[in-house]
Amino acid sequence: MSFTTRVVGQPNTLDYRVFVEKDGKIVSPFHDIPLFADEANGIYNMVVEIPRWTNAKMEISKEDPLNPIKQDTKKGKLRYVRNAFPHHGYIWNYGALPQTWEDPNQTNSDTKCVGDNDPIDVCEIGEAIGHVGQVKQVKILGVMALIDEGETDWKVLAIDVNDPLAAKMNDVEDIERYMPGLLHATNEWFRIYKIPDGKPENQFAFGGEAKKKEYTLDVIKETAEAWSDLISGKSNAGGIALANSQLGNANTVSAADADNIAVGGIRQAAPVIDQSLHKWFFISGSKI
User: Fold this and answer.
1) Which of 248, 249, 250, 231 is nearest to 240 (CA)?
2) Distance between CA atoms of residues 59 and 106, nearest Å
3) Euclidean distance between CA atoms 127 and 162, whole angstroms
4) For the chain, how long is the longest CA-to-CA vector?
5) pLDDT digit string, tens, across residues 244-268
6) Cα–Cα distance, 101 to 225 (Å, whole number)
7) CA angle, residues 103, 107, 111, in degrees to nearest 5
8) Which H or E run contains 192?
9) Residue 119 gets which letter from DSSP?
């Protein structure tokens, strides 16, 4: 299974769209890409929306057919996250787990808030910089529960299975062990990133604690079940586009129709990135 991207328009414009392809055919990164890459070994697929260190607020478009990734807007202007010192852009590869949905009609029993109507978010903490539309295979480590304007906005913590540290990292406490300071930085980033835009500090459930892997897997399972109800029509889709090219249901479109949706798109190879320039170095204070 090979995933590539097809791009319409230029970055930092209102027309920019990144479509995801599987074996050369347009797919929905929301609906068509399987949640699991290897269910038996607990390996998940993750769609990269925002590469680490970048500022453009890219996201899977729920409303557009086949859900391309595009830059979010507010009042007709492109949205960027501000640099809240000492952070620059997003401090992880940020994206989503496909075939999940945080149901806005269901109140979570722990957070006491409804879902935020999006696929569940992922912070991929490995050292390699991703690219928009990349499909990474990740191990799940933990989760934080951001409360954003009265909605539950889960932030799953995961690591690329190809990362040098992946074999050593199996639960949330391993993040602090091998990447000291990253959990604190993640909590701080989400608390303060809206303040430069004049908004108040964000809040977390659980006092900002990152929950363990076992809890996280239950959260993911719940959002996967919610997506299943969404795609089957049991839940009200609202404005969410359910078009897909792989599921074989009433909303499945042909390959030709999928190509028409991405008309003008250019197939784009993964960018060549000198990853050595972007490698994290975590320095423990106890070793200085």
Assistant:
1) 231
2) 23
3) 10
4) 61
5) 999 999 999 999 999 999 987 777 7
6) 8
7) 115
8) helix 182-192
9) P
Distance CA 269, CA 198 (A): 39
Decide if 174 contacts 213 (C-beta within 8 A).
no
**pLDDT tens profile 213-239:** 999 999 999 999 999 999 999 999 999
Conformational region of residue 57, where left means phi above 0, alpha means psi within -120 to 50, and beta covers everything else? beta
Q: CB–CB of 97/45 below 8 Å? A: yes
Predicted TM-score of the model (pTM): 0.94
Q: How far is residue 240's CA from residue 232's CA, in Å, rounded to a whole number? A: 13
Token pair for residue 37? Answer: 């890459």
Q: Distance between CA atoms of 134 and 93, rounded to whole angstroms?
A: 10
**CA separation for the pair 99, 281 (Å, rounded):** 33
State the CB neighbour count (10 A cutoff) for residue 183: 20
What would the two tokens of residue 23 be? 């074996």
